[in-house]
Structure of TspO protein:
Amino acid sequence: MESPAIARRLPAGRSVLAAVGFALLVTLVGAAPSAVASPDTPWFRALEKPWFYPPTIAFPVVWTLLFTLLGVALWLVWRSDADGRRLALGAFVAQMAFNVVWTPAFFALEAPLVALGIIVVLWTLVAGTIVAFRRVDRRAAALLVPYLAWVTFATVLNLEIWRLNA
């Protein structure tokens, strides 16, 4: 019987397919909340937005890119047999859970302050995931840095929307 570490090492062609599969899986999970909540509501359209609010098209483009990077990073960690792999995978799942919860909290519950609390926890979990990934695969950690930058921006955006409409 093959060890799990050997089973994770696939031939080159299948390895690329596995990476693509991880990217698709993370993208599907990340996009799932948009099925129940979206910014296309009268409530959200009526909110005052800060001057730096990006064009609407930026969100699906940025999130698709970020989820792809997250999927590849997750694949790199998953296929590793380095110490700390299980902790890194657990950290990824935890941060992804908070990522998924933010959208319904903000848009469906119409609760920017609750969403702000969630995104602050998310930011902390993403930073922790980067540290955990770095112990397993530096490339995987580097792939999460743009995500942390976007979550930082989204946190400021969430704070300003709450502040302007409180």
